[in-house]
Amino acid sequence: MTHSDAAARPVAQLLVVTRSLVELTDRAVSDSELSHAAADVLMFAARQAARLVEDVVSLRSRDPDIASMFIQCSSSSDLDRAYSDLECLAEAAGMIRAHGIGSQYRAHLAYLMRYAAESASNALERAERSMNLADLTTLTQTWVMDAHN
Which are the contacts of 54, defined by CB distance < 8 A and separation ≥ 6? Predict the structure, then answer.
């Protein structure tokens, strides 16, 4: 995916990030260890992804007509879910750094973080499908209206 593709499709960009988070957390679970460095990377990436989710919602909410359709669309709740999961992942990673949590507890947190990353990724996949379908429906309605005029 090129940079311009990612800019035009922010949810697709988010999916790339969350899938990477899934891989990182999966590796941590497999190793039964989550290093401080990995926790730092996960915390930063999850916080950035959560901000990008906020940006997607903000962009969709600017136009009042689009905003009302967006709120009714299932992608709205899926984006909320992804945001919550990403914030959870970031907080869990932050706990490792801030509180010097021991290795036995870091393994448990790695499971939690993997679940949050997978849940965010699944929610974003649903949101992307829903948004693509909604955009296609809107485009079709526009074509029909133009054809009648």
Answer: 83
Total domains, the chain: 1
pLDDT tens-digit readout, 1-26: 443 343 447 788 899 999 999 999 99
Sign of CA dihedral 105, 53, 15, 40: negative
Whole-model pTM: value is 0.77
Find the CATH number of the domain harbouring 94: 1.20.120
CA-to-CA separations, 84 to 9, 70, 80, 89, in angstroms, rounded: 21, 18, 6, 9
Residue 110: give the domain boundaries: 3-148
Other CB atoms within a 10 A radius of the CB of residue 3 amount to 8
One-character DSSP codes across 29-52: HHHT---HHHHHHHHHHHHHHHHH
- If DSSP codes are grouped into helix, strand and coil, which group holds residue 137? helix
What letter does residue 62 receive in the DSSP assignment?
S
Q: In the chain, at which residue ranges do the beta strands (DSSP E only) sit?
A: none
In the predicted model, residues of the chain with pLDDT beneath 70 are 1-8, 60-61, 63-74, 134-149
How far apart CA 42 and CA 89 sit, in angstroms, is: 8
